[in-house]
Amino acid sequence: MPDVLIVSTVNVNGLRAAAKKGFTEWLAATEADVVACQEVRAEPDQLPGEVRSPEGWHVLHAPCATKGRSGVSLYSRHEPASVRIGFGEAEFEDSGRYAEMHLPGVVVASLYLPSGDVGTPRQDEKERFMTAFLPYLGELREKAAASGDEVVVVGDWNIAHAEIDLKNWRTNRKNSGFLPEERAWLSRVFDEAGYVDTQRRLDPEGPGPYTWWSYRGRAFDNDSGWRIDYVNATPGLASTVTSVVVERAATHDERWSDHAPVTATFDWDFPA
């Protein structure tokens, strides 16, 4: 086993489309031990073989029951002892929003939290998800700790936690993703459930780095983005983080998603 753990996460904005634009080449080149994807939007049998089951990877796909929506995946170079889809809440078990792999000494989870839309049922869904998911995060940490394991929950959390996490925060204070109650919930993930935002552990001042940019206008060129993709780890693992890098494309035309991959490196040994 290597003496570092590298975890990457990216919302692919449709894996079939991303595979044609550059995801396949990125996956082949990455040094990550684990890659988590969100918004896959495909059944496994709809994916090309090189992303459905690429050589050298153990893969878990968790599609949404509603075809063409959501979906999360995990790729691991190390064989998992067990896997899980969903977190025990009936409404979200087949929603393609959560999956986890239990690897030697660490649980790695891929999360796609609902995006929401103020004043619509989508926001109600987001709030129900958050209400149900918070206690599970605490339970997951406690169970892992009892076994001497760490946890890292990565993915598209669809919340910018603080003003330094989005460029135009003043004009977004009433929009989903930056609502006071959403930001307070994410604070509870850190303060009550006990997870650490690894980006902010290394870079507490910001601003950014942003991980999502709208396709509208010149948001990417102007770096007018949001930081909504997180690598959140239990304290023991977070204390070993050495870098968190947003793999921002060099140009707008080279993007294969509206999100950029976020890659965290931990100075952490897999158990023998």
Automatic annotation (TrEMBL):
It comes from Amycolatopsis antarctica. The record marks 259 as: Interaction with DNA substrate. Residues 9-259 form the Endonuclease/exonuclease/phosphatase domain. SUPFAM superfamilies: DNase I-like. This is Exodeoxyribonuclease III. Its cofactor is Mg(2+); Mn(2+). GO terms for molecular function: double-stranded DNA 3'-5' DNA exonuclease activity; metal ion binding. PANTHER family: EXODEOXYRIBONUCLEASE III.
